[in-house]
Amino acid sequence: MNTHFKVVDLFAGPGGLPKGFPHSTLTASAVRNSASVEKEPSAFATLRLRSFTRHFTDGLPEEYYRYIAGKAGRDQMIAAWPRQWLAACKETQRLELGAAGTDEIIDPILERIRDETSGNTILVGGPPCQAYSLVGRARNSGIADYKASEDKRHFLTASISASSAS
Predict the structure, then answer these.
(1) Most exposed: 44, 98, 154, 162, by fewest CB within 10 Å?
(2) Are 92 and 44 in contact (CB under 8 A)?
(3) How far is it, in rounded angstroms, from Cα 11 to Cα 93?
(4) Cα–Cα distance between 156 and 97 in angstroms, integer?
(5) Is the confidence at residue 154, as pLDDT, over 70?
(6) 97 and 159 in contact (C-beta within 8 Å)?
(7) Global pTM?
(8) For residue range 121-147, what is the model confidence (pLDDT) as tens digits?
(9) CB 72: neighbour CB atoms within 10 A?
């Protein structure tokens, strides 16, 4: 029996972190990205578009290539493939982790995924490093009245750990 896993990608950025799983000891068919969460608008737009492309098994449609080339609008691509776009919208969330109300959106999604896989869920994430990295600290030091102890990015992984443990 082949075990299947669903991946939940938090702090997803444009969505590259789960790409490494099919190249590990797991096969590509055994791992499916099922939910992704990102706050930053341009990274989220890329994340959703990448999700859209995963919903095609026989190659990407011409409308996608026309959109990427700037020869057609996004609305035209969506109109041609509404089922795949709806699936991408269901799979991706533009949310700020740790913000009020976010748990009410994410918790049911996580519960559904856990139920669908009997717990075979892989949680990945690349928390924002601006609060930790040397470059981030240098940039933050140039911000008037910046206090590291009040930077909520320091506490995001703790809130996610508590939420995913339940």
Answers:
(1) 162
(2) yes
(3) 10
(4) 7
(5) no
(6) yes
(7) 0.75
(8) 888 887 766 666 666 667 777 778 877
(9) 16
CA 81 centroid distance within chain: 21
Residue 20 has a CB neighbour count (10 Å cut-off) of: 11
Of 120, 104, 127, residue with least CA distance to 38:
127
- Kindly list the domain boundaries of the chain, sorted by start residue: 5-126
The full length of the chain comes to 166
The residue with tokens 């990295």 is 133
Mean pLDDT of 98-107: 89
pLDDT tens for each residue of 16-54: 777 776 555 555 556 777 899 999 899 999 999 999 999
The tokens describing 9, both together, are: 């990608």
